[in-house]
Amino acid sequence: MSVVTNTTTIGAIEAPSRRNTELMMLAFAVAVPVFAYINVGLAIDGKLPTGVLGYALGLGLLAAVAHLVVRKFAKYADPLLLPLAVLLNGLGLVMIWRLDQSPRLIQRAESQWGAFTPDAPKQMLYSAIGIALFVGVLLLLKDHRILQRYTYISMVTALVLLILPMFFPARNGAKIWINLGPVNIQPGEFAKIIIAIFFSGYLMVKRDALALASRRVMGLYLPRGRDLGPILVVWAMSILILVFETDLGTSLLFFGLFVIMLYVATERTSWIVFGLLMSAVGAVGVATFEPHVQQRVEFWLNPFAEETWAQSEQIGQALMSFGAGGTLGTGLGQGNSDLIMFAANSDFILSSFGEELGLAGMMAFLMIYGLIVERGVRTALAARDPFGKLLAVGLSGAFAIQVFVVSGGVMGLIPLTGMTMPFVAAGGSSVIANWALIAILIRISDTARRPAPAPAPSPDAEMTQVVRP
Fold first, then answer.
1. pLDDT per residue over 12-41, tens digit each?
2. Which residue has the higher pLDDT, 3 or 42?
3. Conformational region of residue 144, where left means phi above 0, alpha means psi within -120 to 50, and beta covers everything else
4. Transmembrane: is it a keyword of this entry (predicted)?
5. Environment class of residue 2 by beta-carbon count within 10 Å: exposed (0-12), middle (13-18) or buried (19+)?
6. Can you give the residue range of the structural domain that contains 413?
7. How would you class 389 by CB atoms within 10 Å of its CB: exposed for 0-12, middle for 13-18, buried for 19 or more?
8. Three-state SS annotation for the chain
């Protein structure tokens, strides 16, 4: 019997989904924090902690749910993003629980507030909410290009989120919180994602005008006057945030994000120089009359000054904790970073890792953050549409700026900003918002790595005689 069939010489190349690779790395990402949890318990009490099974099951269940959703709804997504985020989240939970066991912190809380409330259970709840938002984003956001429709709505939403803290009381000198009864929200964490969406949509439309319509002055391509409007508005907004909310971190994040995306969209080095000059002028201008900013700079320059030690004590203790850690660290559960008191598990949690893991551990820790940024940039390079490229770069840039600003402030490289380290610091707003950020990057990477559909058969395809017995 003979059968004649039509075959084409061109076919779709099926790309590997890499989901099994992701699953194996997730197992490793869960095992490392569980081992660290056991290590802390042995260092503190000399025996296995009673909650290790619940912690392992809780973190493993959250990772499994996230993996199953990615496997089903983002089959071709980057296999590294989810394991890296789970690893950081798990290590953060371990360090927060370790600080909850500190007798000094317990005694200080009982004497100052009358009772001590551990932060680790709340952080596990926030992590679960973050994974739920992660799942929701992947289920509802079928295509990241849908976000482009909401460019100007995103701008309005971001402005509202950034302005709202002005109407609430300041905490530790900065107005970055919204207090709704027992719930405290830091809107800047969510605003960074929404701002990236707005910048991506705006620059995709205006990039040609910003890149080509310019004047060459002293080797730099300077923008035309009509194109300076949006840049000046963004610059003025960052300065207003710094003045009225005394929030140096959000101001740096906001303006730095715009400069990065502007450079990527136009490929003009002059925009970076122009942006740095504007940020320097704004920072110096505000620092000359804003007492809180002046105080932050003074503490940065002289953290061990005797006359200001009562206010700069935490910065000095953080620097000493890094020094005490040495190269290999004191070991998990054996440091004294709890002397930093209430900020030990939030603003200064990086110093806790630095003391107990040492320089080697800190380099590995920061490398995890660097890998997330690298995978985000790789996603931008692979994206097929300009909006996806800009959005991936914007989200990766916002994440990188926040890591630099926080770690630089704690290590004494720049003045302290009061922002929280992504995924590891105690606080619901940060961990929830960063899980949403990872979900959007995964959606973009899934679209970028998804194989193109097979071309339709051509009527002129070669006729092949297939003979079957």
1. 445 677 899 999 999 999 999 999 999 999
2. 42
3. alpha
4. yes
5. exposed
6. 2-467
7. buried
8. CEEEEECCCCCCCCCCCCHHHHHHHHHHHHHHHHHHHHHHHHHHHCCCCCCHHHHHHHHHHHHHHHHHHHHHHCCCCCCCHHHHHHHHHHHHHHHHHHHHCCHHHHHHHHHHHCCCCCCHHHHHHHHHHHHHHHHHHHHHCCCHHHHHHHHHHHHHHHHHHHHHHHHCCCECCECCCEEECCEEECHHHHHHHHHHHHHHHHHHHHHHHHHHCEEEECCEEEECHHHHHHHHHHHHHHHHHHHHCCCHHHHHHHHHHHHHHHHHHHCCHHHHHHHHHHHHHHHHHHHCCCHHHHHHHHHHHCCCCHHHHHHHHHHHHHHHHHHHHCCCCCCCCCCCHHHHHHHCCCCCHHHHHHHHHHHHHHHHHHHHHHHHHHHHHHHHHHCCCHHHHHHHHHHHHHHHHHHHHHHHHHHCCCCCCCCCCCCCCCCHHHHHHHHHHHHHHHHHHHHHHCCCCCCCCCCCCCEEEEECC
Note whether 306 and 316 are within 8 A (CB): no
| Nearest Cα residue to 249 out of 305, 177, 316 | 177
Separation CA 188–CA 248 (nearest Å): 12
Q: What is the pLDDT of residues 293-344, one digit of tens each?
A: 778 788 888 888 877 777 778 888 888 989 999 999 999 989 887 778 777 7
Q: Provide the angle, in degrees to the nearest 10, between the axes of the packed helices 386-411 and 428-449.
A: 140
Can you name the residues that pair with 216 across neighbouring β-strands? 221
Q: Are 340 and 318 in contact (CB under 8 A)?
A: yes
Q: How confident is the model at residue 3 (pLDDT cuts 50, 70, 90)?
A: very low
- Distance (Å, rounded) from C-alpha 395 to C-alpha 193? 7
Q: What angle do CA 118, 120, 126 make, to 5 degrees?
A: 120
Distance of alpha carbon 110 from alpha carbon 384, whole angstroms? 56
For residue range 54-84, what is the model confidence (pLDDT) as tens digits?
A: 999 999 999 999 999 999 999 999 999 999 9
**Structure confidence by residue, pLDDT tens digits, 357-385:** 999 999 999 999 999 999 999 999 999 89
Pair 62, 127: CB distance under 8 Å: yes
Nearest to residue 148, comparing CAs of 186, 100, 101, 205?
205
Q: How many domains does the chain have?
A: 1
Rounded Cα gap, residues 353 and 425, in angstroms: 11
196 and 258 in contact (C-beta within 8 Å)? no
Give which of 168, 170, 190, 188 is closest to 179, Cα–Cα.
168
